[in-house]
Amino acid sequence: MLSSAVKWVVEEPYSPEAERLLEKWKDEDVRTVAPGLLPYEVANALYKRVLRGEISSDDDRRGVEAILKAGPVLLDHTSVHGEAIGLAQELGRRAAYENDSEN
Question: What is the mean pLDDT of the chain?
């Protein structure tokens, strides 16, 4: 959902498709659900664009606010953090949280 959410507020490839999908969900009254970390992840993705000079810090803040207004239900997964560590170890991952694309 992170990449789609960023496409809702920043113009990039497939942004129109992501925006149409969001509108379709609204029209069909689809309840969207996302991890509670979504706002942090979006803020970080947008902040990287601020650092590269692609958007302003005001655009970053407005983007996060727009995604929250889009209405995803943010889930609290505090009970799974310990399990994430075990799964990371079991799967030989180098991180318990972030995508470990080199592994």
Answer: 84
